[in-house]
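Teaching assistant here, posting this on the class forum so everyone can see the example we discussed in section. The complex has two components, and the goal was to see what a joint structure prediction looks like when all of them are supplied at once.
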Amino acid sequence: MMRALTAFGIATLILVCFGLYNGVYLAKAHERELQRLNTEIAKEGEAIRVLKAEWSYLNQPERLQALARKHLALAPTSPKQIVVLASLPLRGEGWSSAPPVVDFNDLPRRAEPTVPVPLAKPQRAEH
Amino acid sequence: MSEDDRILLDGAAKAALARTRDRLLILCLGFVLAFGVLIARLTEVTVLREEVARAPATQTDSVSVARVDITDRNGEILATDLRGTSLFADARVIWDPKEAAQSLGKVIDGLDVKAVARKLSTRQAFVWIKRGLTAREHDQVHDLGIPGLYFREEPRRVYPNGRSAAHVLGYVNVDNHGLAGIERGLDEKITDPSRNGRPVPLSLDLRVQHALQDELAGAMATFQAIGAAGIVLNVNNGEVLALCSLPDFDPNEPIQPDADGLFNRATLGVFEMGSTFKTFTTAMALDSGKVTLSTRYDARKPLQVGRFTISDFHPENRWLTVPEIFMHSSNIGTAQMAVDVGTDAQKAFLAKMGLLQPVVTEIHEAGTPKLPRQWHEIETMTIGYGHGLAVTPMQVAMASAAVVNGGKLIHPTFLLREQGEAAPFTRVISDETSREMRELLRLVVTGGTGGKADVPGYPVAGKTGTAEKASNGGYAHTKLLSSFMGVFPAQHPEYLVLIILDEPHGTKQTFGYATAGWTAAPTAGNVIRRIAPMLNVQVAPIEPGPHEPTTMAAAFEESH
């Protein structure tokens, strides 16, 4: 009886020891992994911040304006180019009979440069 | 133990053995108890307590504070924290301070070698060499391999849009503490760790800001002005969409030899606004009920008050109705209107409009208006047409918005309002007066001094103002302050644009005129033409001509 109890005790002790050490090692490994991941997240976060700042820097309206002037045949939107939906004739009302609400040929003041409208959308840069 | 021992023990020592066994048992129990406590404690610590394992303590000895991002209303980043590297030294470890300083001077731009050598000779454990190294400097210092030099990573404020909205954003010091603008005004909010990195969105629109800044800079160059200021304000909820003061500065490098750029003309500078102020006098007169649109005033000759003479810049030399006085910007007529209302009523009205006390916003740079030393009838007259009382452009924008938006004075803000959030307001004039004022302001553009501010498709209503700047106790005829306060669309204004040019000069194109109608008004028109489509303002059917008959114009025709 006593011997069996002792054997059981020793076995349990060994098992518990093993379990404990195993647990500790696992926990340590996880902790290291956690730390590594956290560092990585912080690093990625910092990289995202840098890229966002860079994006913002490259998208400065001033810079885009200079580039657009240099490379594009676009001009600021003129009110002439905008028509409210209500001023469009309805389908079936007859295109010819509907009087234009805005007479685009008879605009007051200031001759504005006519804006060449690009035929196709500018091609997207591939990355 | 041998066989003999067991035999020996079997006799007299049996009792002693039994005692020993009892003692051992007690000892065992003691151990069991002790281990039990240990086990219990271990279980509690490892299993029961729900505490997340923490990474080893991070460096918290950084001097710089972390700040959250500041964005515009569309989420564009205006200010952000990037990790910067700073260099410090343990001077006790440095062998040769002079040599170390010299080699550092070779790799770090603009390093004061002598000062560094002095610092390194102090034998102190911690001396800053340079805050905020560039990546290249970092590498090169690292390659020097001088013992006793250390790097420390700390947040550094970066403004990716450079000078855009510099005066709104302000700037920070080396320790990342806000020193001006929003950075100072909202320092607590921006450095609050409980925000968890959530950015602070401003009411500014970066695109509008750029358009304003671009046009102002253009006007400043064209008219060789010494300064300029501009504000774009949402008249219905008080949001500031853009604010610009020129000359400006780069918040990334705020320390400049010339401090003029740091001065915020738009919120801190006080100016005698000139005729732009007539908007308030006319609104006051109409709202008082003592004056109506058909009231006429004698403007046949300059007004003599004591030793003062009040004359008109564009003299009409006849009796004028209120709309005519406003359109032709008659000082004589406006002065009489102000007197009809009275000095006390004028003071009360201007105070109500927020023109006599500083307008404090999230930006602490708020100029205190300069009131006249005495305020009698003559001051009532001059203040009526904008001389003798100096106010900030921000105050003018706030009060003008109230004049056109139905009479509601709304405190301007730089913070983004929630969608559909109603702005708290104080009623200052009646809805009816506000409607009349809108028509009067529209008349100034369609047939008066503000014609060059009009934009086809986006009807503008506004008022020009050309003030002579006070100097040496008098007024200088050549030093002007030209301003234009415009709102659009004229019928139901949504936005206000205020343009101020400090000491503009005439050009060939303006026939030498530096007055507001030739300088500030077209600048405002240019700004509106650019920003109206961005702000989704609906295009009005383009009107047939500048002199279309309105109800008001008809009334004015009758008086001829």
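For the discussion questions: Residues 30 and 66 of chain A are 52 Å apart (CA to CA). Residues 107-127 of chain A have pLDDT under 50 and may be disordered. Think about how each of these relates to the inputs above.
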